[in-house]
Amino acid sequence: MQTSVSIKDLSLNFGSVKVLEHLNLDIAKGEFIVLLGPSGCGKSTLLNCIAGLLDVSDGQIFINGKNVTWEEPKDRGIGMVFQSYALYPQMSVERNLSFGLRVAGMPKAEIDQRVKRASEILQIEPLLNRKPANLSGGQRQRVAIGRALVRDVDVFLFDEPLSNLDAKLRSDLRVEIKRLHQRLKNTMIYVTHDQIEALTLADRIAIMKNGVIQQLADPHTIYNKPVNLYVAGFVGSPSMNFIEGTLNGPTFTAADGTAIPVGTYDFVGATSGSTKAILGVRPEHIFVGEAAADMPFKTEAEIEIVEPMGSETLAWTTVAGVSVTFRCSSDIDIHAGDKIQVGFDIARGSLFDAGTEERL
Amino acid sequence: MADTAVDTGRGAGNTGRRGFLRKTFLHNVPAKIAALPMMATVLVVFIGCTIWTVYYSFTNSRLLPSGDFIGFEQYERLFGTSRWNVSVWNLVTYGAMSLVFTLGFGFLLAVLMDQKIRFESAFRTIMLYPFALSFIVTGLVWQWIMNPTLGLQGTMRNLGWESFTFDWIANPRMVLFALLIAGLWQGVGFCMVLMLAGLRGVDEEIWKAARVDGIPTWRTYISVVIPMMRGVLVTAVVLIGSGIVRLYDLVVALTNGGPGISSEVPAKYVYNYMFGAGNIGQGLAAATMMLLTVLIIMVPWAYLEFGGKGRRS
To answer: What does DSSP assign to residue A79?
Structure first.
């Protein structure tokens, strides 16, 4: 696999504040990478460094094998889409798309051809003569993507492009960005704090916290085998249920004394003796009724709250002294106060060391 | 659809007139009562006095207003007076330079100020300080500074630089520039603050987008940022322009129109004829000409801005 963007040992400080520290990231050609994390985790900063909008303190950035650490943004072969669209408000859509090319002195015929192609791909041809003020949010963001598209670059950078849109438009445009990626096959680096966007769009997700990449993996691995407690808690909605306790061989003993057999769990490395640990189980890996019977751990629990969501039902209960959420089919008829059998699918759960918070 | 609309209109006609009156005069009465003093001021002071001014500019009023019409005689005399013609020419020259340089320097300073510099608020205060002074004070201060014997020139010569010359204030050909220096010193800071507010209103991401697009900084200012600052620019031009037209106190304090008549301005001409020379008719004719000039500039602009295609979005 050819590398498209390569970040080597990148550090960035604002005065004494270290925003990024010795960060390494290799992105393959045509890959869709999502940088995911809460605000202030350094994901946008990293994107700005790749774009060349921020000067790095240390380290190097390569794009298509060329060291661009000190290149101007325009010479890096990138196009960027911003959260606030950042369209030039006094110019028509057509001017917005072509302005950069005009300033660069490109022949008129080629500009026209590129604008035509971009507006076809994004279906904004009828809007070309309008001003940004007369466009809806979704249309504006398309134009912003178009402005990156006409640059004919290898790498697209998206800085929370959908965060200013309402929920419906966001999911529509999300699909369109995915379609765009499949069609153009460019490398795309996408920053978001929305885990649904990350999980649906990414080939690989980099989860960041305090300027450090916690885990870099495909969405399936991120979701099912989080490397640490932070990733496990950040990804997934409703979030993973955590039970604190002690791990002793194949048995996990919860704080209230409930013993949970974890023999089916696929340990990363060998564990010895008794360790303080945290057991994490996703809401959809808790089963009720007959399905619970086959599970390695099952118990009787009383339903406290039921939230029917249409396609599925969320329910709150207490297991091993801890409040636990689970998800089940909306066909199952449950009500608050019901006592039902719940079973944990331990093989698909996660165990973390309580001290290091790393996956066991 | 059209028929119904017409019918409704006709049906409402009879009762509608009363409804219209009630709506105009009785709707929201307290607000209208509160606005009465200002309405009276506008009617009496602005419109009334303007009509009075124009009316008496066609009479031979001297120390006191008189009703003897003499047609355009005052105007003929006005444009036959070299002092008036010099005044007008001075104002045009000063005004053009003042407008261009105030906007130019104001914008440049604002741009420099916008570079995330240290002690920005301190600089801003220093720049804005002259604006807090009256023109009389500004004029006096600069009169002392530019006075050839007492001011900068005298000081430099006393220090040993015998050939140093800075006598614009006493030089009929340069005195307008002396006025300009004082005027800019007073006005640029305020313009800068206005422009700075405009620059701050431009989204950071616009700048980032322009950098990714490879647009040079100066080009971004000209093609993207300045068009976005249209509102601020209009405000600045209106404020600077009104300051230019009523230019009077600065001239009185700095040069008193001298040397000779080389720095006379229309407002001073009006004042001198009305209250000094006791020739009201002549002063009012000059005042009417000033009003006419402002209208000639303002009306087309107001039409473009507010009329034409209806309200702008």
So the answer is: E
Q: Show which of A198, A226, A254 is a domain's final residue.
A: A226
DSSP one-letter string for A3-22: EEEEEEEEEEEETTEEEEEE
CATH of B79-306, one of 2.40.37.20, 1.20.1440.230, 1.10.3720.10, 3.40.630.30: 1.10.3720.10
pTM of the model: 0.79
Please list the alpha-helical segments (H only) found in chain A. 43-51, 93-103, 108-122, 137-149, 167-184, 195-201, 219-224, 229-234
Cβ separation B208–A90 shorter than 8 A: no
The verdict on residue A16 lying in a domain is yes
In chain B, where the domains are located:
17-56, 79-306
Q: What is the pLDDT of residue B9?
A: 42
Q: Which of A137, A152, A145 is nearest to A82 (CA)?
A: A145
Q: Which residue of B has its CA nearest to A89?
A: B228
d(CA B103, nearest CA chain A) in Å? 21
Q: A102-116, A143-157, A198-212, B56-70 — which is least confidently predicted?
A: B56-70
| Summary mean pLDDT of chain B | 84
User: Rounded to whole angstroms, what are the CA distances from B223 to A20, A100, B200?
Assistant: 35, 11, 17
Whether chain B has a CB inside 8 Å of the CB on A72: the answer is: yes
Per-residue pLDDT band at B37 (split at 50, 70, 90): very high
Q: Do B228 and A90 touch (CB under 8 A)?
A: yes
